[in-house]
Automatic annotation (TrEMBL), chains A, B, C:
UniProt name for this protein: Membrane protein YeiH
Domain of life from the UniProt record: Bacteria
Membrane-spanning parts: 6-26, 33-55, 67-85, 92-110, 116-135, 147-167, 173-193
Segments forming domain Glycine transporter: 9-82, 95-168
C-alpha cells in the first residue's frame, strides 16, 4: 500500500514535469496557448496513452483517472506563465525526471503483464510508456525524437528497468521488489550516464557487401574494394 | 430526430470539405493519386478515428458507418480532378468549415460522455475530434500543425464548443440544446475571430529564473539581471 | 493448412526484411542502437499494429504472437551489424518485399472482414497493413512517406490486392484462392511497375476556378484569365 502510494505520486510528478517540459518546447517554437496545452498533454500523457491503446483493455488510464489530465495541464500552464527553457528544466528536474522515467517503465511493464501478454511485449510497452510521450512531442514539433541518440541512455534505461520488472515478476517477487529495484538501479544508471555523456553505439561498420553482396555481383566488387572503409573513421 | 438528422448531415458535410481540403494539400505537395486518398481520408476522418481509438469502445464510427469513407474519398477525388488551392478552399468553405468544426466538437464530447468518462476527457476528445484530422494531415506532409497558432482561434473554438456541450449535459438539457448552443455560439465566434485575425497569446514573459532559479544558482543571477527582459517586447 | 503455413512464413519474412530495411534507414540517419530497434520494430510491425488498433478487437497480433517482435528485432539487428544501404536492400530483397506486401494486404483485408466490417474498410485496412509500417517509419525520421509517390505503384498494388481479396471473399471462394490470386497478381504487377518505373498520376489540371469560382467572384475572373495555365506545364 505504502509503495503503491509512492509510485502513484512519482508517476504524477512525472506527468507534471513532462507537461512542463512540453510547455518549454512549445515556448521555444513560439506556439500559442493551445500549442502549450497539446504539447504538454502529449509529453505528460502520450506514453501511457499509446500503451493503453495498444493493450486494448479499456479506456486509457489517463482518461479514466481524473488526476492525469489536470496535472499535465498544470505543467503546461506553468511553462506558459514562466519563461522556462529546456536547459533550465534539465538543471532543475533531471533527477526527478530520471525517477519518473523508471516509474513509468515499471508501470508499463506491470500493466502489460497484468493483461496477460508476454515478457517481450512487456519490455516493449514499458519502454514505450516511458519514452513515447517525449517522442510523440518531438514529432509534433518536427524534430527527430531525442530518444534516437545523444541523450545519455535515456531510452535504454527505460528498457532495462522494464526488463528488471519482468525478471522480478517471473521470479515471483512481490511488486514492491521489482518496483524498488527498477527505480533505484535505473535512476542511478541514468544519472551516471547523463553526467558522463554515455551513449549507445551507432551501427557497426561491417560491410554487408562483403558478406552478402559478393554472391550477387562478384565482378563489381573489385573496383569498389579500393575505396572501401573510406567512410569509416577508425 | 430532426436535429439528429441535421447534425449527421453537417458531420458528413464536414467530412467532405475536409477531404477536399486534404486533397488541396496533397496537390500543393505534388503527391500522386494515392497521396490524395491518404491525405483526404486522414483530413476527413482522422479526428474521429483518434477519438474512437482512445475511447476503446468498439471499431471507429468511420469504419462501421458505410458513409464516412466514401464521402471523404469523394472530397479527395474532387480535389484531384479540380485545381483547387487552399486559398480557394478558404474562400468557398470557411463558413461550412466553421459549422463542421463545431458539429465535430459536439459529437466528440457527447460520445465521450456516453462512454462514461468525465468532463475533462470530454472536452479533450471533443477538441481532438474537431482538430485531430487536420493536425495529423499536417504531420503527414511535414508541417507544424496549423492548430498550434495563427489560425483564428480554430482549436480554441472547438474546445469552447465541447465545454458548452459538457455544461449543457451536466445541466440535464436535452441533446438538441447543447448541440444548437454549441454550434451557433461556436460558429459565430469562429467567423468573427477568422475575419478579425484574433489569436491566442503566446507564452508570457515572466522569468522562471526569477521565481525558481534564484534558489538554485543565486550567485549567477547578478550579472544576468542587467540583460534581463531584453528579449521581451513590451 | 499448407497454404496457411506458407502465408505465415511469408508474413514473417516480410517482418524480417522490413525490420532490416528499417535498420538501413536508421543507419542512414546515424541513429544509435535504440534507434535501430524502434525503426526496425515500426517498419516490421507498424502496419499490423495500426490495423489492430483500429479494429479494436483485442491486443494486436504483433503483441500476442511471440514470433513477431523477435523477428523484427532480428532484422534491425542485422542492419546494425552489417553496413547495409537502402539500395543494397532494394537489390537483394525487392522480390521478397513485393511478395510480403501482397501477403500483408491479404491478411489485413481478411482480418477486417472477419471482424464483420464492410468491403471498403477491408480495402482501407488491407492497404494500411501493407504500407502503414513504412509510412510511420518515414514519419519518425522526418521524411514525407515514400508511399505518397515515386515508388512503382507500391501502395496501389496493396490496395488492388486487398480489393481482390474482398471480391474473392464476396464470391464465397475459399481463403486459399483469394490469397493465391492476390499474391500472384499483385507481385507480378509490382515487379513490372518497379522495373518500368510506372507511377500513379498526380493531380489533374482542371481549373477549379473555372468550374466553381466563376459563381463566386465573376468580376475578378477577367484579369486573371490572361495569366491562366501559366503554372501548368503542358
Amino acid at each position: 500500500m505504502r509503495v503503491e502510494t509512492i509510485t502513484t505520486v512519482l508517476d504524477l510528478v512525472g506527468v507534471f514535469i513532462n507537461g512542463l517540459l512540453g510547455g518549454s518546447v512549445a515556448r521555444r517554437r513560439e506556439l500559442d496557448l493551445f500549442g502549450y496545452v497539446v504539447i504538454g498533454v502529449v509529453s505528460g500523457l502520450g506514453g501511457g496513452l499509446i500503451r493503453d491503446v495498444l493493450l486494448q483493455h479499456g479506456p486509457p488510464l489517463a482518461l479514466t483517472n481524473p488526476l492525469y489530465i489536470p496535472i499535465a495541464l498544470a505543467g503546461a500552464g506553468v511553462a506558459f506563465l514562466l519563461k522556462f527553457t529546456e536547459r533550465d528544466w534539465n538543471r532543475l528536474f533531471y533527477v526527478l525526471d530520471a525517477i519518473a522515467l523508471c516509474v513509468w517503465a515499471v508501470a508499463g511493464a506491470q500493466r502489460t503483464l497484468a493483461v496477460g501478454l508476454g515478457w517481450l511485449p512487456a519490455i516493449l510497452l514499458g519502454t514505450t510508456t516511458a519514452v513515447g510521450g517525449g517522442a510523440t512531442r518531438d514529432l509534433l514539433v518536427q524534430r527527430v525524437p531525442a530518444v534516437f541518440g545523444g541523450n545519455g541512455l535515456y531510452a535504454s534505461v527505460a528498457a532495462l528497468v522494464a526488463a528488471l520488472q519482468v525478471i522480478c515478476s517471473a521470479l515471483g517477487a512481490p511488486t514492491v521488489v521489482g518496483t524498488s529495484v527498477g527505480v533505484v538501479v535505473g535512476t542511478a544508471l541514468r544519472l551516471v550516464a547523463y553526467r558522463r555523456g554515455w551513449e549507445l553505439p551507432g551501427g557497426l561498420e561491417w560491410e554487408a557487401r562483403d558478406v552478402i553482396g559478393k554472391a550477387v555481383h562478384p565482378p563489381l566488387r573489385r573496383n569498389r574494394r579500393r575505396g572501401r572503409r573510406r567512410d569509416g573513421d577508425d
